[in-house]
Specification:
about 280 residues; mainly beta
């Protein structure tokens, strides 16, 4: 296993790494500073492609544009750098989105931060209808679908748990939760999430210095260390989906010049999954 620094933008809270298998690049964001970045796998070049309102997460649309989940709306970022607001969003006690994922049917499940456990999860349909599914957290976090699309995972950072839910691929219905992974105070916190093609969970650990691996039954397997304290999220990428990209944060670690770097881990001997693309209707549809 090898780990290398790919790009250091000193992200306050680097998040939401997402591999685009068609363009062979990784996107990620820095939530508090309202920036989105892109790393080109083939050329090694990286750049900032968006600066503006805070982005708590994003998905890749079917046409390759990015669907940005911001503070007051859901917006579209197209290849020419234009940003178009699509769906207004406002919910008392919910300051912003945090971590989102496209579903197998092209909808989006969007987590939120929330004051006094008002945060939770929202569904955005392809027809742009936004519905709250549940509340009960200060910080909704990493999500994933199993390779067979029968199970959905959701991370509750407030309770330090990852839950699994039965998922109906035909209807998009989410069943009742069962706790899968729980950690204790003092062990850091559960953050972003990815799965490999064997269904193992890769959970980035805030204040844990790495990505923690669990089997589908929730048993701990191993840790992939990173050189900084706060690993925030991860995704599989590369032409063979055998590279793990890890975002980090320099929040509270300002004296560490490496904090906030995007890292790439190779030599893991496993492959990830191609992430689903959102198919939310745009103003021109």
């Amino acid at each position: 296993m090898q780990i290398e620094a790919i790009a250091n933008y000193r992200c306050d809270t680097g998040e939401n790494p997402l591999w685009d298998e068609r363009r062979r690049c990784v996107y990620w964001c820095d939530i508090p500073t309202g920036r989105v970045f892109r790393f080109d796998h083939d050329t090694g070049a990286h750049e900032q492609i968006y600066s503006g309102e805070t982005v708590g997460g994003f998905t890749i649309q079917e046409d390759g544009s990015l669907l940005l989940f911001r503070v007051r709306d859901i917006a579209l970022l197209t290849d020419d750098g234009q940003v178009t607001s699509l769906i207004p969003f406002s919910d008392a006690g919910v300051p912003r989105f945090n971590d989102v994922i496209a579903t197998p049917t092209g909808e989006v499940l969007a987590g939120t931060m929330g004051e006094g456990l008002l945060g939770g999860l929202y569904r955005v349909t392809r027809d742009r209808v936004v519905t709250n599914l549940w509340r009960g957290t200060d910080c909704s976090n990493g999500m994933a679908f199993t390779p067979d699309r029968q199970t959905f995972y959701w991370t509750n950072s407030t309770t330090r748990q990852i839950f699994e839910y039965p998922y109906d691929d035909a209807t998009g219905a989410i069943g009742s939760p069962r706790p899968l992974v729980s950690i204790n105070p003092g062990e850091g916190n559960l953050d972003g999430l990815a799965l490999d093609n064997h269904g193992r969970l890769y959970s980035a650990r805030w204040d844990g210095g790495g990505v923690f691996i669990y089997d589908p039954h929730g048993s701990y397997i191993d840790t992939i260390p990173v050189p900084v304290a706060k690993a925030t999220s991860c995704c599989f990428g590369g032409p063979n989906l055998d590279e793990l990209y890890v975002t980090t944060s320099h929040w509270g670690c300002e004296d560490d010049p490496a904090a906030g770097t995007l890292y790439r881990v190779t030599g893991l001997g496993v492959r990830g999954l191609i992430e689903h693309r959102s198919q939310i209707k745009t103003a021109t549809d």
